[in-house]
Amino acid sequence: MRPTRGLPTGRGAAPRGVGWLLLALVACIPACRLAAPWPALDGILPESTRIDPSVPSPFGWEDDAPRTSTVRAGQLVIRADFGLAEQHRLFRDLEALRADVSQDLGLPISDEPVHLYLFADPAAYEAFASRHFPGFPVRRAFFIETDTVLAVFATWQDRIAEDLRHETTHGYVHAVVPRLPLWLDEGIAEHYELPRGEAGRHSHHAAHLSGRFLEGTWRIDLPRLEALSSAGELSQDHYAESWAWVHWLLHTTPGRRRVLQEYLADLRRDGVAAPLSSRLVAAEGPLPKIHAAVVAHVEEIARNDRAAAARD
After folding, report:
1. Which alpha helices (H) appear in the chain, and where do they start and end?
2. Residue 143: beta bridge partners?
3. Within a 10 A sphere around the Cβ of 60, how many other Cβ atoms?
4. DSSP 3-state of 50
5. Rounded distance, CA 295 to CA 111, Å?
6. What pLDDT is recorded for position 15?
7. Which of 59, 112, 117, 273 has the most C-beta neighbours closer than 10 Å?
8. What CA–CA distances, in Å, run from 227 to 274, 300, 312?
9. Residues of the chain with CATH 3.40.30.160
């Protein structure tokens, strides 16, 4: 079973400047390790892309942060406490992710840096997190947003690609839309944590929701998601449903994609907007009809996945 993603209490959708916003991943138990380890880091980028690690940074944790290797990949400033593979395919993947997020969501590309800090040793990573974010439960990776910086902290392990795609997506989106509803923030990150070839098709979430529908223990309900304001309220069901809404909006009809894009544009411009559910009702009809359409979408994905598994 896929682990849930834990967030500290009070996460909310506050704008930058109202304290820390931290988004975290729960440490995965061995049975959840589905991705193969990334290969050793090697390769060279042109000298023009290098960043001098001796140049000081204005962030409070910088003196204690990884600085052995530093490279830039598009909007990302990546620092590690080990030798970085400057041409590593993961970094190229994260660069391409920025364009995908921008195009799919109808958002401009920002030049605001998103800082990634990578640790080779989990113990060093946990000690760093404990020193600089006391009281925060240490996870495999997490994103923070302050009034001056967007940053991701992670330990290099066999699910690093998934972790960095998820957390970097938060960075790319928050660089242009600082204030997002909690459910949508996570639904977007869940969609883009998958490899590009998957087109956001999250088989684990689809199977989980399909099973819950069959049991009669969960129902799709967008206003319920919109009412969530605390990270502590989020369960695996909420993450899965949030993903389902984002996938349905992006991958079914152009009209639904436009509804999401216009909603994000209004949030970017005004900081607040009428709930997405009210916009969908205006465009699609009553909520029960919309909920049924999302359930059918999830069931179709789960059914196709089962058929593919049977053929294999």
Report:
1. 89-105, 122-132, 160-174, 182-192, 203-215, 222-226, 236-251, 254-270, 276-284, 287-311
2. 23, 152
3. 11
4. strand
5. 38
6. 31
7. 117
8. 13, 27, 41
9. 21-178
Which residue, 174, 187, 166, 173, is CA-closest to 93? 166
- Reduced to 3 states, what is the DSSP secondary structure of residue 48? helix
Q: How far is the C-alpha of 292 from the C-alpha of 126, rounded, in Å?
A: 43
| Whether the Cβ atoms of residue 4 and residue 26 lie closer than 8 Å to each other | yes
**Which portions of the chain are predicted below pLDDT 70?**
1-59
Strands 150-155 and 141-145: antiparallel
Cα 285 to Cα 276: distance, rounded to the nearest angstrom: 13
In angstroms, what CA-CA distances link 268 with 142, 144, 254? 23, 19, 21
| Neighbouring C-beta atoms of residue 3, cutoff 10 Å | 16
Rounded to whole angstroms, the Cα distance separating 113 from 102 reads 15
pLDDT at 226: 97
Distance from C-alpha of 47 to C-alpha of 236, rounded to nearest angstrom:
44
Calpha distance 154→307 (Å, rounded): 36
> What's the DSSP call for residue 60?
T
What is the CB neighbour count within 10 angstroms for residue 267?
Answer: 20
Q: Provide the pLDDT for residue 10.
A: 25
Give the closest residue to 263 by CA, choosing from 275, 251, 250, 253: 275
Q: What angle do CA 78, 188, 24 make, to 5 degrees?
A: 55
The pLDDT of residue 139 is 84
Nearest Cα to Cα of residue 1 among 209, 217, 171: 209
Question: Per this entry, what is the length of the chain?
Answer: 312
Residue 59's pLDDT is what? 60
Rounded-to-integer distance, Cα 145 and Cα 247, Å: 25
CA 128 centroid distance within chain: 22
Residues 22, 136 contacting (CB under 8 angstroms)? yes
pTM: 0.82
The token pair at 253 is 């009809």
